[in-house]
Write a structure and sequence with these properties.
Distance between the termini: 89 Å
Number of helices: 3
Order of helices and strands: EEEEEEEEEHEHH
Radius of gyration: 30 Å
Shape: globular
Largest sheet: 5 strands, antiparallel
Oligomer: single chain
Strand content: 25-35%
Helix content: 10-25%
């Protein structure tokens, strides 16, 4: 599923906010050949860096010098414990929304954001009702959003300014199949561990063997024809 969100400075709170804050995500699930769905709750919020596990911190190279404080967009996906075994594997990709200069249509880009969308923190917690749920979390640094937007010539003033500037719009895909197809196409087949030259020789050898068999059959047929034409003398 695709999730679109906006980030801007709230004029009243004087801080960054994400909207919408919540999405209900329906994941497909095949049960006994029937197409079914189970729902999950995705929550997005702005959090300070100290709330993010150190292993999920962005590279310091992405930060502006002396930029303080550092904030992140936190994504939290909640699902029922009993539905965790059938949960579709998360394959995250994300990118900003832009206007295509050729078509004039709005479209979302897909940018390689590195480990921040490849490392997902998963644990089991109690929800406010006291029920056990599976929590999946990942984080994207606001400075990463700024870096990507600046590199692609997109307006990102809304990350810092309150006013008429448009909000920063991004789209995140929760189950991007493109990376899986590419990885499968690049993965070598286990039954063929030889290099290209060996495979070419192998194929040529098979062809040669087939030609030899055909030639042998042809010679046998010719010898039989000759035997019929020139019978042995008594």
């Amino acid at each position: 599923g695709f999730v679109q969100f906006e980030i801007r400075m709230d004029p009243q709170l004087k801080s960054r906010t994400v909207s919408p804050e919540n999405y209900i995500i329906a994941f497909p699930n095949r049960d006994k050949g029937k197409q079914r769905y189970h729902s999950s709750l995705l929550t997005m919020r702005i959090v300070p860096e100290e709330s993010v596990p150190p292993e999920h911190h962005a590279s310091r190279a992405q930060m502006e010098p002396n930029f303080n404080p550092v904030e992140y967009v936190e994504f939290e996906l909640i699902l029922r414990v009993r539905e965790a075994p059938v949960q579709q594997q998360l394959r995250l990709s994300a990118g900003p929304v832009r206007v295509n200069p050729e078509t004039g249509q709005r479209e979302s880009m897909r940018i390689d954001l590195g480990h921040c969308v490849r490392q997902i923190a998963s644990d089991v917690v109690d929800d406010p009702r006291g029920k056990r749920v599976v929590r999946n979390r990942w984080w994207i640094c606001v400075e990463t959003l700024r870096l990507v937007c600046t590199a692609n010539g997109l307006d990102c003033r809304a990350l810092d300014e309150v006013g008429a500037c448009p909000p920063v719009e991004w789209v995140i895909c929760l189950a991007d199949e493109r990376g899986t197809r590419v990885a499968e196409s690049q993965q070598p087949q286990q039954e063929e561990n030889r290099d290209v030259d060996d495979l070419v020789d192998f194929i040529d050898g098979k062809r040669g063997g087939s030609n030899a068999k055909r030639k042998k059959k042809r010679r046998s047929k010719e010898e039989e024809d000759e035997a019929d034409c020139y019978p042995a003398s008594s």
